Amino acid sequence: MNRARWALPALFAGAIGIAFAPIFVRWSEVGPVATAFWRMTLALPLLVLWASMQPRGTNLPGQRAGFAMALLAGLFFAADLAVWHWSIRLTSVANATFLANLAPVAVTLGAWLLLGERAKPVFFVGMALALTGAALLVRANVGSDNALLGDSLGILTALFYAGYQLCVKRLRDTQSTARIMLISGTACAAVLLPLALAAGETVLPTTLTGWLVVLALAVVCQFAGQSLITYAVAHLSASFSSVSLLVQPVAAAALAWLLFGEALAALQWWGGAAVLLGIYLARRGSF
């Protein structure tokens, strides 16, 4: 019960941590996929340490199958990061982050069909309000030169991230958060490096600042942010968790405004308020 009480704060803290990801991607000296590789690789030592501190109990039912599912989660997450980082480079931070957070639509459908989850009607009202508010948040960014490709990649990101979230939700029945993050993270990094090399991207940062950027991405966004989210979804429904993460584009858009001058119109600020209200309603309507 005490752990469940911390699930919602952990979810929001993780979302805020990940909101810094597009900022670090913009600052990175290396290519988008290479940035994703360092995000995962530099977080792995922390994940190994965390996993080593977990109590070693008896094998749980389904643990071997859980290993395969964790590998699948890593593949989904590798695809998610690769296309999202390219989306961030091609369109606005707000656009890329919102479209990636269309995952609630896919997650809700997947949770309904695969996990047997149900929700009250008010949940869907909250989800619709959150999505409408997020659409207002990014409306002013539509129409830039590379927006079509960047936005398309953002939508693809949402599909991959939905697959990752559903895998994690299933895994938490038999696996610890540390084990999920370590196995999926290792698989993710193993996929991202060949992709970055095949794309001809610059892989190694050339300055101390460049290394600090990818290190911050690994610690703040991947280890802290993603781990908190993985922990939280163990105690919250998959559909509610995904809708709650819509706080991420609000925070990311605010950071982009402060750091890159990507100003938001008044209508977009109203959109941010609608997102938060939608999250509240979704919380009231989820089991």
What does this structure look like?
With 287 residues, the protein is mainly α. It has one domain (2-285). The chain contains 15 helices and no strands. Helix 4 (32-41) runs antiparallel to helix 11. The longest helix has 28 residues, at 63-90. The protein is globular and about 45 Å long.
Topology, element by element:
Blueprint: H1 2-5, H2 7-19, H3 21-27, H4 32-41, H5 44-52, H6 63-90, H7 93-100, H8 103-115, H9 121-138, H10 147-171, H11 177-198, H12 208-232, H13 238-244, H14 247-260, H15 266-285
A few lines on this structure:
Helix content is 78%, strand content 0%. With 287 residues, it is mainly alpha-helical.
Give the tags.
287 residues; mainly alpha; globular
Main sheet specs: none
Order of helices and strands: HHHHHHHHHHHHHHH
Q: Helix count, per DSSP?
A: 15
Indicate the radius of gyration in whole angstroms.
18 Å
